[in-house]
Amino acid sequence: MEKGLISVDRWGEQSQAYFLTHLHADHTKGLSSKWKKGPLFCSPISANIFPAKFPGFKLSLLRILETGSPHSISLISPTSGSKIGVQVTPIDAHHCPGAVMYLFRGDFGCMLYTGDFRWETANDRALLGKSMLLGALGGDEVDFLYIDNTYCNPSFSFPPREVAAQQVIDVIASHPDHDIVIAIDTLGKEDLLLHISRTFRTKIWVWPERLQIMHLLGFSNIFTTKTSLTRIRAVPRYSLTIENLEALNTIHPTIGIMPSGLPSAMKPIHRKDASVGSSPSLQHSSKVSRNGTDGKPISRKSFHSCIYSIPYSDHSCFNEIQEFVKLIKPSNITGIVSSSFCYVNPRHFFGHLCGSNQQSNKPLKKLKRSEITENDRIIQPESILGCDKLNEEKVRDKNTKIAILSIRRRRVSIIRQEGCGAKIAETNGICRSDFDAGIT
Fold first, then answer.
1. CA 152 to CA 380: how far, in whole Å?
2. Same domain flag for 293 and 169
3. Residue 247 within a domain
4. Are residues 96 and 209 in the same domain?
5. HEC string of the chain?
6. Which residue has the higher pLDDT, 200 or 362?
7. Measured by CB atoms within 10 angstroms of the end CB, which terminus of the chain is less buried, N or C?
8. Average pLDDT, the chain
């Protein structure tokens, strides 16, 4: 697509049309109440909660696109000055309220931008989303796929959210005399909270800003800001620290629940305690609860006597990404997350599924410390074009090793920051470089 026509989740560039996938903070950087560069296209739900996120925003700039319906927009080529017709179809991304993918068609070909998405295949909503996407494609091939590669690594395998939600229910039910603190972001995981509320027939406490979002989403009777009405509280993600939980436990027995695909390992700041793990190797599992998509038991992991990490993720895990790519069969694939601690370019694993066979699926292997140098960095597949076969294999092998090194270094960085009570704002699980918005 010619530069200067369309920007998706990029607000600093000069374009003729701007598209918002969803309202998590890492997708709205550069967007403010004073922003007025051009028309902003988004889903109806995003438009409804937009004023709460950006008070004073000029709402006449918003263009609402109904999910599943094609829309035509007319743009002008910056180079030739001729008119360019673009057809865009929003598709439910199954990520957080209002989140959509965008399918673009025009003389430039067919492009699909997923934004953050969860590609589950076991529930009615997922089947509807699949049908909607295939219907929008109408048999056309996708020339360029821009995909959420947050967890594009074989080490990540999540159960369906319905299974993970039941694990949360099991944890709460097994602590009937405890207060419950659940870490969430300012948008997302509403289905989990609703499931908890219905199961235990109770309201859930949220902070005032979150209550406003809940009201805009139509959940006015389930959530409250009065702590006396419930023992279950949903708190900002950054506030769930071991230090805070230990302080709460001096008042009343309290447990914390971290629903996220991000492998968390939290430790206290001022006290040495062998029961608190600083790495996943020190995790201990509680009783097994339910089965995952592969039929194997999924166990809840506890990193501390009063904290449970539940693999409830709003991002696709490796196998789901793979199934999505198999379904789409794009000619080219590019990851939209370039600085995740778990980053691996999706072309490394899925290039062989693409029409252009961009990258072979060579398995990762363990890297010896002696093989690591300070100059190691991730080499993009474009850098190996033009190499002969022997050199290409060497570069790919190095790329594999560096990817593992990147995972290790960044995971350690996150664990250290979490242990110090660092804020992981608006993540929804996503492990971006600044930890803005949801890895979850």
1. 15
2. yes
3. yes
4. no
5. CCCCCEEECCCCCCCCEEECCCCCHHHCCCCCCCCCCCCEEECHHHHHHHHHHCCCCCHHHEEECCCCCCEEEEEECCCCCCEEEEEEEEEECCCCCCCEEEEEEECCEEEEECCCCCCCCCCHHHHHHHHHHHHHHCCCCCCEEEECCCCCCCCCCCCCHHHHHHHHHHHHHCCCCCEEEEEECCCCCHHHHHHHHHHHCCCEECCHHHHHHHHHCCCCCCEECCHHHCCEEEEEHHHCCHHHHHHHHCCCCEEEEEECCCCCCCCCCCCCCCCCCCCHHHCEEEEEEEECCCCCEEEEEEEECCEEEECCCCCCCHHHHHHHHHHHCCCEEEECCCCCCCCCCHHHHHHHHCCCCCCCCCCCCCCCHHHCCCCCCCCCHHHHCCCCHHHHHHHHHHHHHHHHHHHHHHHHHHHHHHHCCCCCCEEEECCCCCCCEEEC
6. 200
7. N
8. 77
Q: What is the CATH number of the domain that holds 245?
A: 3.40.50.12650
pLDDT at 286 over 60: no
What mean pLDDT is predicted for residues 12-37? 95
The string of pLDDT tens digits covering residues 310-328 is 999 999 999 999 999 999 9
Q: How many domains does the chain have?
A: 3
Domain's final residue, options 92, 107, 140: 140
Contact 346, 147 (CB under 8 A): yes
- Please check whether residues 74 and 166 belong to one and the same domain: no
| Tokens representing residue 273 in the block | 């305690």
Strand partners, 302: 284, 308
- The answer to whether 148 and 343 have CB atoms below 8 angstroms apart is no
Residue 364 falls within a domain, yes or no? no
Which domain does 220 fall in, by range?
161-310
Please tell me the predicted confidence (pLDDT) of residue 429. 33
**Are 168 and 303 within one domain?**
yes
